[in-house]
Design goal:
The complex is a heterodimer of chains A (346) and B (530).
Chain A: E1 5-6, E2 11-13, E3 18-20, E4 28-30, E5 45-49, H1 53-60, E6 66-69, E7 74-77, E8 80-86, E9 94-100, E10 103-107, E11 129-134, H2 146-162, E12 166-170, H3 176-183, E13 191-193, H4 195-206, E14 215-216, H5 223-228, E15 230-233, H6 241-244, E16 249-254, H7 261-266, E17 271-273, H8 281-291, E18 295-301, H9 303-312, E19 317-319, H10 330-337, H11 339-345
Parallel strand pairs in A: 3-4, 4-5, 5-6, 10-11, 11-18, 12-15, 12-16, 13-14, 13-15, 16-17, 18-19
Antiparallel strand pairs in A: 1-2, 2-3, 7-8, 8-9, 9-10
Helix pairs in contact in A: 10-11
Chain B: H1 2-13, H2 17-30, H3 36-43, H4 54-65, H5 69-79, H6 82-89, H7 101-109, H8 116-127, H9 132-143, H10 152-163, H11 167-175, H12 185-190, E1 205-206, E2 208-209, E3 223-229, E4 232-239, E5 242-247, H13 263-266, E6 271-281, E7 284-285, H14 288-292, H15 302-307, E8 310-320, E9 323-324, H16 330-342, E10 350-352, H17 361-369, E11 376-383, E12 391-392, E13 397-401, E14 405-416, E15 425-434, E16 437-444, H18 450-463, E17 464-468, E18 471-474, E19 479-484, E20 486-489, E21 497-500, E22 503-507, H19 519-529
Parallel strand pairs in B: 1-12, 2-13, 8-10
Antiparallel strand pairs in B: 3-11, 4-5, 4-6, 6-7, 6-8, 8-9, 11-13, 14-15, 14-18, 14-19, 15-16, 17-18, 19-22, 20-21
Classes of the chains: A alpha/beta (346), B alpha+beta (530).
Chain lengths: 346, 530
């Protein structure tokens, strides 16, 4: 009997009778991280990293039955040894390591290999079976070191200020926003955040995460003041009316999709910064090789392409349909219709 | 190169004409003087000879990236642009360089005639010295195909602003024959080459589509009505004993139309005629599909000369005895044009595009309804007292086209677009009913709003039946009205006919797939136009 199988509710471990990131309600949902395509409302119990708990409480409500683990802490569920290892995706994101009778399986959720300065750095875990995402599983996606991107953003903001424009960065409220706040803290300029970001920041700070100071945007703040700083808003607000009230808003989208010109033009932002919380092509390959897995299951992203390539280079891989995204572009285009999904995708 | 790369990035960042012009002006203020003529040449589509084939470039990129060719192809489908795909897929550069743009371009030109090994060495070394953005530009330099959303008009406006020169003069100057390595930026702006250069054409006067009833134009007697011919707009230039034929795409097409070469002996020096290149048999203008057999060919066979003979229908006189006539009224220019054509000995090749004499707009409207009978697209209305403007200007000239044909079809295949739409299903194939079968009749990719594209895109993702590489077969459910300009028999298409210039007129959400047109409907239309 395999340690995990892919059911119509999610990734199922029969021996332990629990699911990992199920998309339908189950008894026990082991949760890799707090993005909405990986954790749903309605499960009887949740098991997640201790820093994912404040996100779940904030997003799904206070009445949840949540058990938490630290990284590398191990528990036993009906003989299955379960532990969590940092995935480097967002604060609290974890790879789930399962071990039963000597067989090891790691479900990585979403991950990136570059340390972003705020989420615990990704750590490869040796295993027999590895479940990997493939959001940016094409060789055209190769990220620059994040410091270079932060420098680009800094230059862009300076240029905007010279031209009397207000700089607005578009970033997902969980993950990207905190990464930007942390990465731009040394640029010595006030950062104003939309309330959806401010609320999450508060939840993190209460849970003991050290976040640089930001200012919650409120109607009392004068437009001239905002123009002197940097604004971060979630994608749902990118085309909203509020933006039009700003002094000549210049928008900068922070997303891996900005790597490609078509992606930049489609979003019709004034600037695009290829900053992603997902692994790029070399990142995916190095992570997978480091696991030394005999078998890789490829979920959401460029699944067909990426698994075909893995097989060609001698790593047995199989494409798996999940509801974390069935086709590569749904992440980006589906997001346009539904701000809820967009938040979580990248 | 770095400054030019920055310019391209700025041009791509904005959709606003004013921002783009501002970016161009900044560039022409700051850039290396020697680079500027090259940039103007590129943006006006003056292509140097391509030094290396696409196939080789692709082969070397695949080799360097150490990827299987299928994965390169997948990446290309996702990016939608070959130059960009290569730029992204190559390993990071090991070196840096900041060679000026013109040196890159000249170095590329020097590759012509060299063996593949030396070409490869140069290209690979360049790739290894440039960052992703610069590589993209470099790859575009190789192809010479620099379409970056800068129209000639926009460029001219920017140059006019930067140099404080009249835009007409600049348009004139940059449209002529010049080589970026032989002219300085200042000379180009001053139009230093245009006096000595015999071939230069004038900017075409273009018309907007009539968007109100013709009665609003006033008295019909103040207007000249002509057929709007469906061929290639062109200019015949005869100066200094030489004949030049320009197409509207600013291409010299003299060699393609030997039937017109006798004019070198019959037209006076210093004559420029505006007109339409058409295929005409026994005095009857043929459809565009006949003319098409003659276009973009390096050699023309005897058979083609016989099956699609060419004539030039004259609209206007732009220069006579070396003097610009554009400041005179249409009435005066037309009279002089008639005299010029009268003097031509060979009949039927240089023809006056006939004027249509009517007493009222209503009478004209009746004639217009029959435009298709003489293979024209409708009418042109030109004010008799109008001057010959450069480019498009509202008011003096109008095109009054007949409505296109339309057919209701169902979408059966979808494919992702390219460029801005690379990640959306935007290219669709449409079918009509043929008995129990659906039969493909057109492919189209324009005519929907971004919002509609998103809706169709979502439909395709939910209703894809099969994958064939990048193509998805979809449930035949969505009905679209396709507009087209003509219909012709075709052996190449399964339906046995082909539509000309098909595009989506509208999405018929009110119709079901059972209500679409049949192949018989289209065959009837084809027979009625023969």
């Amino acid at each position: 009997m395999a340690l995990i199988r892919f059911s119509n509710k999610g990734i199922y471990c029969e021996q332990g009778d629990f699911y990992i990131d199920p998309w339908k309600p189950v008894k026990l949902a082991v949760t890799t991280h707090g993005h909405a395509d990986h954790v749903k409302w309605g499960n009887q119990a949740y098991l997640c990293h201790e820093l994912t708990k404040p996100i779940l409480l904030h997003r799904l409500g206070a009445e949840l039955n949540i058990q938490t683990l630290r990284y590398r802490e191990e528990i036993n569920i009906n003989g299955v040894k379960l532990s969590m290892f940092p995935a480097g995706h967002v604060i609290g994101s974890a790879q789930i390591r399962l071990e039963y009778k000597g067989e090891v399986c790691v479900i990585s959720g979403d991950y990136k290999v570059e340390y972003d300065g705020i989420s615990t750095a990704f750590e490869p875990v040796k295993c027999h079976t590895f479940v990997s995402e493939s959001t940016f599983g094409l060789p055209i996606y190769k990220w620059l070191p994040q410091q270079l991107i932060f420098d680009q953003i800094g230059n862009w903001v300076n240029n905007n200020q010279e031209q009397g424009k207000t700089s607005v960065l578009i970033a997902y409220s969980l993950g990207k926003a905190q990464r930007l706040i942390n990465g731009l803290k040394d640029q010595d300029r006030p950062i104003y955040v939309h309330q959806s970001i401010a609320n999450l920041n508060d939840a993190f700070i209460q849970a003991g995460v050290a976040l640089p100071e930001t200012i919650r945007i409120s109607p009392e703040i004068r437009k001239e003041t905002l123009q002197q700083g940097l604004i971060i808003v979630p994608p749902a607000l990118a085309d909203g009316r509020w933006m039009k009230t700003l002094q000549q808003a210049a928008t900068g989208v922070c997303s891996g999709w900005m790597q490609v010109r078509a992606g930049r033009r489609w979003r019709s932002a004034d600037a695009g910064f290829a900053l992603s919380d997902h692994a790029d092509w070399p990142g995916l390959l190095s992570a997978i090789k480091a696991t030394e897995a005999e078998k890789v299951f490829v979920t959401h992203g460029f699944t067909a392409t990426f698994s075909k390539y893995l097989n060609e280079i001698g790593i047995e891989a199989e494409e798996v349909k999940t509801q974390y995204g069935t086709e590569e572009e749904e992440i980006e285009t589906g997001a346009q219709e539904n701000p809820e999904i967009k938040e979580e995708a990248d | 190169m770095k400054r030019f790369t920055e310019l391209i990035a700025q041009l791509e960042m904005s959709n606003k004409t004013n921002d783009k012009i501002a970016a161009l002006v900044r560039y022409f203020n700051e850039a290396n003087d020697l680079d500027k003529p090259y940039v103007i040449a590129m943006f006006t589509g003056k292509r140097p000879r391509r030094p290396v084939s696409t196939a080789l470039i692709k082969e070397w990129a695949i080799e360097l990236s150490e990827l299987p060719p299928w994965l390169f192809a997948e990446s290309y489908h996702s990016v939608g642009d070959l130059s960009e795909t290569i730029a992204l897929i190559l390993p990071p550069p090991a070196k840096t360089t900041d060679l000026p743009l013109h040196q890159w371009i000249n170095a590329l030109q020097d590759l012509n005639g060299k063996d593949d090994e030396s070409k490869k060495k140069f290209i690979v070394n360049a790739w290894d010295s440039l960052d992703t953005q610069e590589r993209f530009i470099f790859n575009k330099l190789i192809s010479g195909n620099f379409r970056i959303g800068v129209s000639n008009k926009m460029l001219v406006n920017a140059l006019a602003k930067q140099s404080d020169t009249e835009s007409n003069k600049i348009m004139h100057s940059i449209m002529g024959k010049w080589k970026p390595d032989e002219i300085s930026y200042q000379e180009l702006i001053a139009g230093a080459h245009v006096d000595t250069d015999r071939s230069w054409p004038y900017p075409f006067c273009l018309a907007y589509a009539l968007d109100s009833p013709p009665e609003s134009l006033g008295d019909v007697k103040e207007w000249q009505a002509e057929w709007k011919w469906d061929g290639i707009r062109g200019q015949i230039v005869k100066r200094g004993g030489e004949l030049f034929i320009w197409s509207r795409g600013e291409e010299l097409v003299t060699d393609q139309f030997p039937e017109l070469h006798f004019l070198v002996d019959e037209l006076e020096d210093g004559t420029v005629l505006d007109g339409e290149i058409l295929s005409v048999k026994e005095g009857k203008v043929q459809s565009f599909s006949t003319l098409q057999q003659r276009l973009n060919r390096k050699t023309i066979s005897k058979g083609q000369l016989e099956s699609a003979p060419i004539a030039f229908y004259c609209y206007d006189l732009l220069e006579q005895q070396g003097i610009d006539q554009r400041g005179k009224t249409l009435g005066i220019r037309r009279k002089a044009l008639i005299e010029i054509i009268k003097k031509i000995k060979s009949q039927g090749v240089l023809v006056l595009s006939p004027g249509i004499e009517v007493g009222s707009w209503a009478e004209l409207a009746l004639l217009r309804a029959d435009s298709r009978l003489n293979n024209s697209e409708g009418l042109m209305l030109k004010k008799l007292d109008s001057l010959y403007h450069s480019g498009r200007k509202r008011g003096d000239w109008w095109k009054w086209k007949i409505n296109p044909y339309t057919v209701d079809t169902v979408m059966i295949y979808a494919q992702k677009g390219s460029g801005r739409r690379a990640n959306f299903y935007t290219d669709y194939t449409f079918a009509v009913r043929d008995g129990e079968q659906l039969i493909t009749i057109a492919k189209a990719y324009s005519g929907l709003t971004d919002q509609e594209i998103k809706e169709v895109d979502a439909f395709v993702k939910k209703n894809a039946i099969e994958k064939f590489g990048p193509v998805r077969t979809v449930k035949p459910e969505l009905v679209f009205e396709i507009a087209f300009e003509g219909i012709a028999e075709s052996k190449r298409h399964k339906a046995g006919l082909a539509l000309r210039f098909p595009r989506i007129a509208r999405w018929r959400k009110d119709k079901k797939a059972a209500e679409i047109n049949t192949l018989d409907d289209l065959r009837q239309l084809l027979n009625s136009t023969l």
